[in-house]
């Protein structure tokens, strides 16, 4: 299970709705006491009846590969699903975890917190080579990803609070 910082809003009732005003989060994060939360999970495929579609659009004329090529038993996958010991999930909801990546690494580097830092730095800030970037919350998970992204995109210097100075080794 992924326990992301933004989940505090889901558990805060109406106060959480105020903090996420204008966000799509509240629509699926409005948890009520006693309900099973729905959020990111990572699990092993126990059984698969999924077929993998070939082609850009889903039409009856497309070739369907055998289920064994879709999601195989034992593969590690992620999905947005209820926090339960067992789940039945549609193949369209699943995302394979790259081989050799642990669930902890997948959640921290491939999921929402990391995507927020990466996409915010790359697509919202749109840094140019030589820019100086400032990241508030730079010592947190999202901020660290944003700092690394700015550096990789050519920022001359990245500053943040709490104080972080990002150094990228020339060989990385």
UniProtKB/TrEMBL annotation:
UniProt protein name: Uncharacterized protein
